[in-house]
């Protein structure tokens, strides 16, 4: 009975050890994978901020070029980008506001950028209206031109500040993403072979401490049976 209890204990201990090791390696791999996914998410998030910022500047530049061509030619078709830009720019600003809600400094930049962008559009529309009603000379007076140049310069300066901040974040997050991905690959490439080795050691332990004693017990039982058979045969002959 004692030997039977010991065998059960050894089997249970071996099984429990295997489960614990498997859970520990699995948890480590899961944690590494989660960190890699999280780092990749923030890297993608930064790319989205940069993309929306570039789209905003591109659309604003497109409106400026169209207005300038209109001032020169008087062709209303050049004003199409300016006439349709309000909704697009508002969407860009909304996206940037949402994407940078966790970044106080970028939110402060947006607080300055948004009224400048709206003011720039109003100036473009106002100058285009002057060109339409009063002619080229009135629309291109130095005061109007300087106001537009100052607005455009302020917008570009703020946009560059935001871009620089996001580029620094992108560098950091790219490094974090690469490190997390590398850690995940290491955890898989090391964890799985390590688990196989540990299972082999557990199997060796079970074989050495359970299978061998069982073979000894079986051999002893066979010897006892053989002795009983010989004793029975001897008693039969003596009778």
What this model shows, in words?
- With 239 residues, the protein is mainly α.
- The chain has one domain (2-234).
- The protein has 5 helices and no strands.
- The chain has helices spanning 2-73, 80-99, 104-134, 136-139, 142-238.
- Helix 1 (2-73) runs antiparallel to helix 2 (80-99), helix 2 (80-99) packs antiparallel against helix 3 (104-134) and helix 3 packs antiparallel against helix 5.
- The radius of gyration is 40 Å and the shape is rod-shaped.
Instruction: Return the average pLDDT rounded to an integer.
Output: 79
How much β-strand is present in the residues?
under 5%
Structural class: mainly alpha
How many whole angstroms does the radius of gyration measure? 40 Å
Unreliable stretches (pLDDT < 50, length at least 5) are 1-5
Question: Which sheet architecture does the biggest sheet show?
Answer: none
Approximate helicity band:
over 70%
List the domain count as a whole number.
1
Order of helices and strands: HHHHH
Number of strands: 0
Separate helix tally = 5
Overall 3D form: rod-shaped
**Ends apart, CA distance between termini:** 38 Å
Topology (SSEs and partners):
Layout: H1 2-73, H2 80-99, H3 104-134, H4 136-139, H5 142-238
Helix pairs in contact: 1-2, 1-3, 1-5, 2-3, 3-5
Descriptive key words:
239 residues, mainly alpha, 94% helix, rod-shaped
Short overview:
This protein is 94% helix and 0% strand. With 239 residues, the protein is an all-alpha fold. The chain has one domain.
